[in-house]
Amino acid sequence: MVESSTSLLTKLNFVDQNFNPDRDDDINHENEAVSSTTDGDTCSILIDGFCESKITETDVRDYFSNKDLSGGGTVKEIEFNTDEGWCVVVFTSSQAFNDVCIRRHKLKDHDMNVKAHGKKRQNVPEVKVISNLDEHKLAFITASNISKDVLQTHLSIFSAKIDWSSVKPDNRSLHIASNLTSDMKDFQKKARVWDKHIEKEVLQFFELLQIKEYKIDPNEWDLIKKSVHPVDVKDKERVMITTNENRFSIVVVGYRIPYKSLVNHINLLTNTVRVRERLENSEIRLLSAGKEMESIKNEHKSIKIVADLANGNIEYSGTAAIVASAKQRVSDTLKTKVTLIIPDIANERYQFFKRKSVQKELEKEFKDKGITCAVGFEKDNKIFIYALSKTEGEKAVNVVRASIAEVNVGKETPPGPLDKELQEVRKKKGDTVEVRRSDSKIIIYAIPLSTVEAIKDHINFFVRYPHGSVRCTAHFCTETGQSITTLLGDITDLDADVIVCSSDKHLKLGIGVGHDLVQKGGNQIQLECHTFLQSKQIKELNKDEIFCSSSGKLTNFRWIVHIPGEKWENVKESSEIDGKNNFIKLITSSLEKAEKKKSKSIAMPALCCGNNEYPVNKSTDWIVEALNEYLKRPGNKTNIRKIYLCDKNPSAVDNFVKKLKTYKYALVYNRDKQQI
Q1: pTM as predicted
Q2: Quick one: 290 and 141 in the same domain?
Q3: How far apart are CA 373 and CA 365, in angstroms?
Q4: Quick one: which of 560, 548, 582, 566 has its CA closest to 515?
Q5: What is the pLDDT of residues 230-275, one digit of tens each?
Q6: Which region, left, alpha or beta, applies to residue 427 given φ > 0 means left and ψ of -120 to 50 means alpha?
Q7: Are residues 552 and 669 in the same domain?
Q8: How many domains are there within the chain?
Q9: 34 within some domain
């Protein structure tokens, strides 16, 4: 049994329970056989002039249907206009029309003005095209079998049928054909108003559908779309959701109850919200140290994430779906959290780490090394490391463990000057360094490792040379991890794998550093130089050639690299640029030779400033340039970790420091001139 249109409409909740398909124009669709007339024949009369009368449509119909009274006959239809006082009467035969027109007529004591009405018969309506319909509503109706059935049932009341095969949402139009036939009762009247009724009914039907379009920020589109797709639309016949990637929009269309339910759900994804989530102190600091929150904010420009360590929460604000995704990502990140414990920390060291300034240095060191972690302090002198992986945690533990160094102190070290020097170190570095002394050793706490090593080297040199024959002036740390230390004093007293010495092309070690090396290391050094030159055809070094000898009896060096010096006046006369390039080449060759010997440390003075008379600033500047070029060479992984630039001339040492400061080297520690 087919449901009535009223029943279907009622179920869809878009008509009143008192819906009546009959209209006040008295249209009904009972087919009735009537006498036919010839197409084009005039069978209607126009009656006017009875505005003030009480004549009704029934009176007119009864009168003109009575052949004896009016000469008329069967009346096919009447169009009656009471307000304007006229009506049109259509007869089924031209004979009745002719008989009426030749008579005078009086009805209810009112003379009626009757004349032929020149209106031809109404043709069967053609296809009605309703355009400019809402494309989303049209797409929904087309996809909903129930909606199509209801609309078709509704239009069938007016003898209309939708051509669903012609529906294309992009064209936004409906093609509706008429089922009217000329033999229907009141055909002329129905045909005249058919298209208006059809358009009115379709538009009213469309108005019953509710629709909402969400415009999405293009930066949020992918995630919002991903969140919307899993939405379970339980009643697809009564509500529909669509996404448009080109317009970055989401559209919901349907009938009131299911539509409202679905819109509420989408609102939960697209509304702007502010959410606070409570987290542990260590979790907030771990997230702040990591990259996940920044990554989320870079992906979704509209979201704001604020870590509130004081109140123990993280606040998210932005589109609900984005906030939900961000919270999930943070939760997933924290699931990988590991906790490592460094137990049994000496109380002095434990208290050192609890200083705010030290914790800042520690956080900076973690960041510089790309370690994501946070540090916590518990009772019993335990340090907790919180990280996002065990590997990260172990790296952080190593940084903490490397924060201590010891320097042994001999009895020959005068306590007064040493205490004064330690006090100066504390003054220079503030509370980011802790230096403690006992009778036999000095303990250093510092962050980062480069500072620990710099302070250790500084104090080591002071302890080793208690009478001040060698003193550190500055400590630098390079981006590739080397330390560069400038020293004032006798370079031959240092400990290094390699020392660089300048002489001349005949390798005569009679003056300067060469002389000191032979005095301390013995004539074997000079003999090796002589033997090497004798093996050469020209018996001398080329201007860009170096020679590496042993250190003889010296135990504080393993190798000596000899470079040939050229008189400065000859350099100036030929080309200073060529002289500089050759000088830098000699320094580079010295570093490469040290590298080949697998050396970890190298020392050099201001070369060629003695017998060769190079200006001090030229020598020191070119040495530092050569070092910088060597260390920054792509793919250069040198074994050299320590570089000592040492000279007896204070001006040379000052120039070394001045030039080093022009590069991106970290100045870890420097000593005031008046204290050297």
Answers
A1: 0.64
A2: no
A3: 11
A4: 560
A5: 777 888 899 999 999 899 999 999 999 999 999 998 998 899 999 9
A6: alpha
A7: yes
A8: 5
A9: no
Q: Do 495 and 581 lie in a common domain?
A: yes
Host domain of residue 309:
272-335
- Report the C-alpha gap between 500 and 519 in whole angstroms: 16
The values of phi and psi at residue 630, to 5°, are -70, -45
Residues 197 and 327 in one domain: no
- Angle of helix 281-289 relative to helix 356-368, nearest 10 degrees? 50
Q: Please tell me the number of Cα atoms within 13 Å of 405 on its side-chain side.
A: 19
Q: How far apart are CA 447 and CA 404, in angstroms?
A: 9
Is 506 in contact with 566 (CB distance < 8 Å)? Answer: no
**Spatial CB neighbours of 536, under 8 Å, sequence gap ≥ 6:** none
Instruction: Identify whether 634 is preceded by a cis peptide bond (ω within 30 of 0).
Output: no
CB neighbourhood size of 242 (10 A): 15
Report yes or no: 611 and 512 within 8 Å, Cβ to Cβ.
Answer: yes
Check if the beta carbon of residue 247 is closer than 8 Å to that of residue 295.
no
- Location of structure tokens 């518990």: 378
- Token reading at 430: 């503030």
pLDDT 10s digits, 272-294: 999 999 999 999 999 988 888 88
Token readout for 473 is 């002036």
Rounded to whole angstroms, the Cα distance separating 154 from 10 reads 12
Domain assignment present for residue 49? The answer is: yes
Are 666 and 552 part of one and the same domain?
Answer: yes
- Cα angle 395, 398, 403 (rounded to 5 degrees) comes to 135
CB 614 within 8 A of CB 607: yes
Residue 75 is given by DSSP the state E
In contact, 435 and 426? CB cutoff 8 Å:
yes
Ramachandran angles phi, psi of 430, nearest 5° = 65, -155
Asked if residue 419 is part of any domain, the answer here is: no
Residue 435 one-letter amino acid: V
Q: What is the CATH number of the domain that holds 251?
A: 3.30.1370
Looking at the structure, do residues 585 and 534 belong to the same domain, yes or no?
yes
Domain CATH code at residue 317: 3.30.1370.10
Q: Is the per-residue pLDDT at 55 higher than 70?
A: yes
Alpha helices, DSSP H, located in 559-670: 568-574, 576-596, 616-631, 650-660
Q: What is the CATH number of the domain that holds 73?
A: 3.30.70.330
Residues 296 and 250 placed together within one structural domain of the fold: no
Residue 107 in any domain: the answer is yes
pLDDT value of position 635: 59
